[in-house]
Amino acid sequence: MKLVECSVTHNLRVRPEYHILGLECGELGSIEPGQFITVSVDSVEMVLRRPFSIYRVFENRGVIEIFFKVVGKGTKALSELKEGMAVSVLGPLGKGFPLYEGVTAVLLSRGVGLASLALLGDKLKGLKSRVVTIASFKGRDADLASDNEYVKSFSDEVIVLYDEDRSSDVENVRYLLNKVKPDVVYTCGSKRLVRLLKELPYEAYVAWEERMGCAVGACRSCAVRTVAGYKLTCYDGPVFNVRDLIL
């Protein structure tokens, strides 16, 4: 974990409410898929640091990307950053996903939760695993996967589901998972998907999401109930085996 002053390399608006922010942070060191960072900028709208999963890493350039939705004043401030502006980054934080070589893996995402799984897919592809990405969204106007060349680059198959046609219903997701018969499933913070995975026989992990204060284990505001008692999302997670969580 390091506190680094980073520089904005790009800030791409990929949908009306969605941005990909590139940060040159050469001193962060090794990053595991599933780990996260917290960021802060010089703005009255961002008093507390904001946690973000690491979407993509360009190791040869020392650049990382975060993928976020503008939902409040803090993310609005991030969406307005220009090339060359300074961003304070703390990380990498937390524990990442376990990686397996030569397996069939499903990345099961919901909305912008895809950002928590993309780097994982990239790493799994490098380990000669078959990667099936199943991404669900409210509607086609919020689809972050179909035209995403990065996601296509590591996915052997991309399946996109929508609420508007009910293809994202839990029973259809169950059907798709049983059709693929994966060795392992990785998902992000959707409780609905975690409950489904707890019912199925597949090894499964989740990048859990909770509101965080300090993000380093001191304030304990991100506690989650597990079979071994309460654990901290920022320190013991954010990645947990789904069977360890009590929802």
Automatic annotation (TrEMBL):
<feature type="domain" description="FAD-binding FR-type">
    <location>
        <begin position="1"/>
        <end position="99"/>
    </location>
</feature>
<dbReference type="InterPro" id="IPR017927">
    <property type="entry name" value="FAD-bd_FR_type"/>
</dbReference>
<keyword id="KW-0411">Iron-sulfur</keyword>
<feature type="binding site">
    <location>
        <position position="214"/>
    </location>
    <ligand>
        <name>[2Fe-2S] cluster</name>
    </ligand>
</feature>
<keyword id="KW-0408">Iron</keyword>
<feature type="binding site">
    <location>
        <begin position="74"/>
        <end position="75"/>
    </location>
    <ligand>
        <name>FAD</name>
    </ligand>
</feature>
<dbReference type="InterPro" id="IPR039261">
    <property type="entry name" value="FNR_nucleotide-bd"/>
</dbReference>
<keyword id="KW-0479">Metal-binding</keyword>
<dbReference type="Pfam" id="PF10418">
    <property type="entry name" value="DHODB_Fe-S_bind"/>
</dbReference>
<feature type="binding site">
    <location>
        <position position="234"/>
    </location>
    <ligand>
        <name>[2Fe-2S] cluster</name>
    </ligand>
</feature>
<comment type="similarity">
    <text>Belongs to the PyrK family.</text>
</comment>
<dbReference type="GO" id="GO:0050660">
    <property type="term" value="F:flavin adenine dinucleotide binding"/>
</dbReference>
<dbReference type="InterPro" id="IPR019480">
    <property type="entry name" value="Dihydroorotate_DH_Fe-S-bd"/>
</dbReference>
<keyword id="KW-0249">Electron transport</keyword>
<dbReference type="GO" id="GO:0046872">
    <property type="term" value="F:metal ion binding"/>
</dbReference>
<feature type="binding site">
    <location>
        <position position="222"/>
    </location>
    <ligand>
        <name>[2Fe-2S] cluster</name>
    </ligand>
</feature>
<dbReference type="GO" id="GO:0051537">
    <property type="term" value="F:2 iron, 2 sulfur cluster binding"/>
</dbReference>
<feature type="binding site">
    <location>
        <begin position="50"/>
        <end position="53"/>
    </location>
    <ligand>
        <name>FAD</name>
    </ligand>
</feature>
<keyword id="KW-0813">Transport</keyword>
<dbReference type="InterPro" id="IPR008333">
    <property type="entry name" value="Cbr1-like_FAD-bd_dom"/>
</dbReference>
<dbReference type="GO" id="GO:0016491">
    <property type="term" value="F:oxidoreductase activity"/>
</dbReference>
<dbReference type="InterPro" id="IPR012165">
    <property type="entry name" value="Cyt_c3_hydrogenase_gsu"/>
</dbReference>
<keyword id="KW-0001">2Fe-2S</keyword>
<dbReference type="InterPro" id="IPR050353">
    <property type="entry name" value="PyrK_electron_transfer"/>
</dbReference>
<dbReference type="InterPro" id="IPR017938">
    <property type="entry name" value="Riboflavin_synthase-like_b-brl"/>
</dbReference>
<dbReference type="InterPro" id="IPR037117">
    <property type="entry name" value="Dihydroorotate_DH_ele_sf"/>
</dbReference>
<protein>
    <recommendedName>
        <fullName>FAD-binding FR-type domain-containing protein</fullName>
    </recommendedName>
</protein>
<dbReference type="GO" id="GO:0006221">
    <property type="term" value="P:pyrimidine nucleotide biosynthetic process"/>
</dbReference>
<keyword id="KW-0274">FAD</keyword>
<dbReference type="Pfam" id="PF00970">
    <property type="entry name" value="FAD_binding_6"/>
</dbReference>
<keyword id="KW-0285">Flavoprotein</keyword>
<feature type="binding site">
    <location>
        <position position="219"/>
    </location>
    <ligand>
        <name>[2Fe-2S] cluster</name>
    </ligand>
</feature>
